[in-house]
Amino acid sequence: MFQSRTHTCNELRLANAGETVTLVGWYENLRKVSKNLGFLILRDFYGTTQAVIETEEMMAKLSGVNTESTLSITGVVRERSSKNAALPTGEIEVVPTDIQVLGRCRYNELPFEINRSKEADENTRLKYRYLDLRNPAVKERIVLRSNVVAELRRSMTEHGFLEITTPILTCSSPEGARDYLVPSRNHPGKFYALPQAPQQFKQLLMTSGFDRYFQIAPCFRDEDARADRSPGEFYQLDMEMAFASQEDVFAVLEDVLPPVFEKYGTYNTASKAPFRRISYHDAMEVYGSDKPDLRIDLVVQDATECLADCGFGPFEGQTVKAVVFSDFKATRKVIDKICADTEVQTGNKAYWFRLDENGELVGGISKFVTERKEQVVQALGLKPGDFVGLTAGKRLVAQKTAGALRKILGNTVEGHMTKECYEFCWIVDFPMYEIGEESGELEFCHNPFSMPQGGMKDLEEKDPLDIYAYQYDLVCNGVELSSGAVRNHDPEIMVKAFELVGLGEDDVKAKFPAMYNAFCYGAPPHAGIAPGVDRMVMLLAGEESIREIIPFPMNKTAQDVMMGAPATVDPKQLADVHIAIVKDEKEEKTEE
Length: 592
Description:
Layout: E1 20-34, E2 37-43, E3 48-53, H1 56-61, E4 70-79, E5 92-103, H2 122-127, H3 129-132, H4 136-158, E6 162-163, E7 181-183, E8 191-193, H5 199-207, E9 212-221, E10 232-242, H6 246-264, E11 276-279, H7 280-287, E12 300-302, H8 304-307, E13 319-325, H9 332-346, E14 351-355, E15 361-362, H10 366-369, H11 373-380, E16 387-393, H12 395-412, E17 424-431, E18 433-435, E19 442-444, H13 455-461, E20 468-476, E21 479-486, H14 491-499, H15 505-511, H16 513-519, E22 526-529, H17 533-541, H18 571-576, H19 585-591
Parallel strand pairs: 6-9, 11-17
Antiparallel strand pairs: 1-2, 1-4, 2-3, 4-5, 7-8, 9-10, 10-22, 12-13, 13-16, 14-15, 14-16, 17-20, 18-19, 20-21, 21-22
Helix pairs in contact: 4-6, 4-17, 5-16, 9-12, 13-14, 15-16
């Protein structure tokens, strides 16, 4: 019994007929038939129940009471004459003997209709998130999140992992995104940073002798929002294992995740262990993406040899990639939209032609291909009725554009995508280094703390661009859930790895003092990963936006419009932490 209620609004059934009960909840609506007859819907966290007002006295108690006020209703349960099979409580109703207002809603108009809040403007929903969450369709996403987190915790504990929390106030470290900084009151001019991830702490736990660690870890990064990424903070299933290999990490997640996805997912089918292993090189060549959606059966083919010199300007001297779609029935309007969407997503054009039912090349750039028809048909394995989408550019550009085209084709035109399942895969064998697009210098490709696959030998003898790392990504339905790695636990190998990007031993010691020193006291080989909880729940719920599964999310510009954050603070608060606000010169000129 809670708050003097005898039952929840989803609990009463026909067997309760004749009982006197007390319900509490929100006054959802009243269909008033006359001055002494009306049908009231009461809603709580669990569901709804209909109360039938049959006296002027009870109706008077609702006079001037706005919907969304909280009520306590005491009355007798009886069988409904007009049953509602769509509701669990649809066979009964409550006839009130007493109605009390517990919390009055003081507004005649709401910012949106509660049960249709998802139709409202997003900023309005976020400003009044406490009302938005009253909508059962919105609330159930947060309940799902809670259930998933509880299931993950249970499963990880059963696999022998200890849940250990790591610090929130720590030091700034180069993780790849901007830090959130926290000024120190006791140490003027110095700052804490909120952790972008517990990376160093969990590795230090391994050197401390803990064997298996996990936590549902909060991470903080000052980065822009995307549909699958919330600005500010996010949560991940952070885990690390001592004396472990890449395959040990894979085995744990292949055992933990499929049951969670099958139990709580929109679809009840998920990949079974072992998940497919796809090298980074093959993923880019075959799918045009390092996070391929394996529900789509289309693949990317190389068409450089047969089409680069066909006379079509954009192909000259470029890598050309092709995506072949069999039995293609789409109209020219659909084709144009597919090409336009590809260009919007990638900034690069897509081209096309078809092999019609008579075996003739038609449409798009077919006039440039006709003279070498037989070569192209053989190279791409074409059959009458096939549609060929094409991309061109430098190798990586052509690959990524083809990957976007493949995904758009699979989602737009029926016949090549199995939607109602969860397809997992591991992307493995990432390059250790790459040439930075902006710097033109050698940089770490993925994670600087990863172990090179050939150890010290490869670092000393191989071209850096030919060195692979024990790094891996977990992908589900085209969404990257996580990156992980076998860690570089050897100080000598670590120093050598950083030397190749121009950082010496002193730099490593300065940037990562605790971890470097700890490794010098004998560290176990260790490996880990950290699947994103927010993205996981988004996939399970079938939502397009990650904000739908976060209780109190920020908006796209990293503002909490409900609480008014970020906000100005009192000058004394700034003085306490030795901070002075300096106006930007551009702002001053604008004010002038």
